Amino acid sequence: MKAFQISFSTAQQATTWFLLVNGAVVPLSAYLAIKFPTKWLLLGLDVLLLAGMLISYAAPSATNGWWLFIAGRIMAAAAFGILLPLMQTIIATIFPPKQMAVAMGLSGLVVGLAPALGPILSGWILSRNHRLFGLLISHSWRNIFLVPIILVACMLILAIFQMKDVLPNRAVPRDFTSLSLSLVGFSSLLLGLTNVATVGWWNIPAVLVPGISGLLLICVFIHRQLRLDIPFLNVRVFLNKAFTLPTVLVVLVMMAMYGVEMMLPTYLQNILGLTPFQSGLTLLGGALFMGGLSPVSGFLFNRVGVRRLALFGFSLLTLGTLPFAFITTTTSARLIGIIYALRLIGIALVMMPLTISAMNAFPQSMAAHASTANNMARQLGASVAVALLSSVTQNIISQHMPTGQLKVTNPVAYAGQTLAASMAGFRVSFCIGLVFAVVGLGVAWFLKPKGEN
């Protein structure tokens, strides 16, 4: 914020725009995977991702450089939003069903570890200047981008020489109407949900107008896809219970995960007084468990089936979330790390197996549409969870906040009541995450046992 001379609310736009664009482009994945050769599509997305990060890295430290930084984040979000479903489509295409479980689990190793290691690395870089292999690494925010820039550059070089065209392509009509409905509809809906955190649910221009208009456009988009011989996105995949039920459970996992993930770093830093680096280390054990168990979950999927894994995983998720509803201002960071790890073990045991189960509901020719629809539902579920948790937590904190007069007459009492108000908001957020976990446990009973068609 100091580098760009902006306020906290303006700084939040970086996250807002990233999530908006990332969610809006997901429906494009199936169309692009079918229309363009895999190698050139991947190279184009890698170039777009690398260019976006380089632009953000090089943005000048001034107010007018902020929008250049945002432009870079938008480019990176557009690439990332397509890359994840594309990766799942490629895995579902090149591996037979039994091998796909392990392959998808290995991909979960990367997907699970990256978001956890990122904040820790960022906190380490920003804490002070470092020397690594004789090189000075300053604590500038720009150096946060260096590691991903180097990794993406290496990935781009490897893709040039190693990537093959593995997805079958066919002629797809240019459907600009569906493209426009998809982009505008999902962008508007996600924008409305994102604004809930700052202005509440009933703000007409910021929430209701974009949210309702986005829903209407999405309904028109769905109606159009059902009438087209060659749809832009085959939404009929949701008519298959074997696909829809695991996808719903994936959404519930995301919502339960956000119920704690959103507020826990703030609790560790604002209540327990940890630095960003220390809070990252507190949560590192859970992230390592989640990453390490992802390949194992693929193996277990082949052995015991998705139903047993889902029931066991949601049970662990529920048990690991329950203690968060009772944490206090004196709860030890070590205990937080242990119960957080228990939650992520449960998430690791269900996330990829449920995704694999959903993908297995269709032949390989439908992999692009199934992967896109699964990721689209996951993105919408995450956005709804963020909007719900942010608004409810903020309302609870506001209701329990002491009056400004108390700050003058009794500063100590004001500080104590402010702390209590924050804790009330955190506990409600954790309880909402617990509700999602319990609902997921109930829905998991409807999954079919292994071997039953």
TrEMBL record:
Segments crossing the lipid bilayer: 14-33, 40-59, 65-87, 99-121, 141-161, 181-202, 208-226, 238-260, 280-302, 309-329, 335-359, 424-447
Entry's Gene Ontology cellular component terms: plasma membrane
Domain of life, per lineage: Bacteria
Localization of this protein: Cell membrane
Listed GO MF terms: transmembrane transporter activity
Membrane topology: Multi-pass membrane protein
Domain Major facilitator superfamily (MFS) profile as annotated: residue spans: 1-452
InterPro entries: MFS, MFS_dom, MFS_trans_sf
Key words of the record: Membrane, Transmembrane, Transmembrane helix, Transport
Record Pfam families: MFS_1
Protein name: MF superfamily multidrug resistance protein B
Organism: Levilactobacillus spicheri DSM 15429
Phylogenetic placement of the source organism: Bacteria, Bacillati, Bacillota, Bacilli, Lactobacillales
